[in-house]
UniProtKB/TrEMBL annotation:
A GO term for molecular function: FMN binding
Protein name: Alpha-hydroxy-acid oxidizing protein
Binding site for glyoxylate: 25, 165, 276, 279
GO biological process: aerobic respiration
Positions of FMN binding: 78-80, 107, 128, 130, 156, 252, 274, 307-311, 330-331
Residue intervals of the FMN hydroxy acid dehydrogenase domain: 1-381
Stored SUPFAM superfamilies: FMN-linked oxidoreductases
Organism: Halocynthiibacter styelae
InterPro entries in alphabetical order: Aldolase_TIM, Alpha-hydoxy_acid_DH_FMN, FMN-dep_DH, FMN_HAD, FMN_hydac_DH_AS
Family recorded in the similarity comment: Belongs to the FMN-dependent alpha-hydroxy acid dehydrogenase family.
Matching PANTHER family: 2-HYDROXYACID OXIDASE 1, S -2-HYDROXY-ACID OXIDASE-RELATED
Keywords assigned by UniProt, alphabetized: Flavoprotein, FMN, Oxidoreductase
Length: 387
């Protein structure tokens, strides 16, 4: 058993154990991948202030996100095709999150269905909605999430149409994988993955297949999004969806101050500063660069979360110090899942927690709720001057 000490260790194992097309799907950004790269490299520009001779006993990372108690300010982000990284992946990740005490968000484009996940966990999870061009299907998804007891609806706003990820086209990404000479040669080397997949019935988009007809190729994410996602989605529609749901709502994919103000005006429970992990608009600024301007504009009106680029507990600490109430992690837990299933997700959460907790202590704090910008050293031109 390899010794896992950091998220990168899980990433290496994920790459070795999951089929190439699914590892590549997770590890891609759109087009040149500039935004994907900068999401992480911009975190590295921010430094932490070492403080000494401060009592660091009795520390806590407990807080609340969108009114929910969390063991640390982290939510598992919605990630498409998670059940292709490891058999029954969404169920495994949801179980690990529940045991750790952080929320799990199920993607519309998951392999395990809403009902499947609900049957296997005991706490309510969050559901992420992609808006469809067919209101009846959008409403049906909302009703299914309600019936399954989901506590929060996360509406993704930055993917009405899919940003191109070159590797997915070259690999012929599909769920389940289409059997070609190339994919068979790859799958033959991933025996762990194959055994797991043989043992489950969950190999297609569980929220879609069997719930809607007339899709050209239900296995093809790009075809599905092209056929069915709602190109006309606007703020009026967002308000309508919020009303259809009638519960807690988080808007994900806000990267601009003007959009943050519109979101705050709607009166939602939180917004997520995000560029979809660099998978949509290539050339957009990193999420961490946009965090402070957005917090300055709307932080007193709406809770602000951040995703895109979190790979360490130090990154989480930096985002909190810059005004986020919490973060979403995508790849950081998907590496763990692809490496070792539920155990790997737990490991990812433990790694991040330890890094965050010890770094917080070394910055002179005992309670994550008291961490502020004083712990940071931020380059003067960090946000940049853009005309
Ligand atoms: C969809 O959620 C994607 O980013 O692939």
């Amino acid at each position: 058993m390899p010794v896992i000490t950091c998220i990168d260790d899980l990433k290496r194992l994920h790459k070795k154990r999951a089929p190439k097309m699914f590892y590549d799907y997770a590890e891609s950004g759109s087009w040149t991948e500039q935004t994907f790269r900068e999401n992480t490299s911009d975190f590295e520009q921010i430094r932490l202030r070492q403080r000494v001779a401060v009592d660091m006993s009795n520390r806590t990372t407990k807080t609340q996100m969108a009114g929910q108690d969390v063991a640390m300010p982290v939510v598992l982000a919605p990630v498409g095709l998670t059940g292709m990284q490891y058999a029954d992946g969404e169920i495994k990740a949801a179980k690990a999150a529940e045991k750790f005490g952080v929320p799990f968000t199920l993607s519309t484009m998951s392999i395990c269905s809403i009902e499947d996940v609900a049957d296997n966990v005991s706490q309510p999870f969050w559901f992420q909605l992609y808006t469809m061009n067919d209101d009846a299907f959008t409403k049906q998804l909302i009703d299914r999430a309600k019936a399954a007891g989901c506590s929060t609806l996360v509406i993704t706003l930055d993917l009405q149409t899919l940003g191109q990820r070159h590797k997915d086209l070259k690999n012929g990404l599909s769920a389940p994988p289409k059997l070609t000479a190339k994919s068979i040669a790859d799958l033959a080397t991933r025996w762990r993955w194959g055994l797991g997949m043989l043992g489950t019935k969950r190999r297609m988009f569980g929220n879609i297949v069997g719930h809607v007809d007339g899709i050209k190729d239900p296995a093809d994410l790009a075809a599905w999004t092209g056929d069915r996602f709602d190109l006309t989605l606007d703020w009026e529609k967002v308000a309508k969806i919020r009303d259809w749901w009638g519960g807690k709502v988080i808007l994900k994919g806000i990267l601009d101050v003007e959009d943050a103000k519109k979101a705050a005006e709607l009166g939602v429970d939180a917004i997520v500063v995000s560029n979809h992990g660099g998978r949509q608009l290539d050339g957009a600024l990193s999420s961490i660069r946009m965090l402070r301007p957005i917090v300055a504009a709307v932080g007193d009106k709406v809770e602000v979360h951040l995703d895109s680029g979190i790979r360490t507990g130090q990154d989480i600490l930096k985002a909190i110090a810059m005004g986020a109430k919490g973060v979403m992690i995508g790849r950081a837990y998907i590496y763990g899942l692809g490496a070792m299933g539920e155990e790997g997700v737990t490991k990812a959460l433990e790694v991040l927690h330890k890094e965050m907790d010890v770094s917080m202590a070394l910055c002179g704090h005992r309670d994550i709720n008291n961490v502020d910008e004083n712990i940071l050293l931020v380059p003067e031109d960090f946000e940049g001057r853009w005309a």
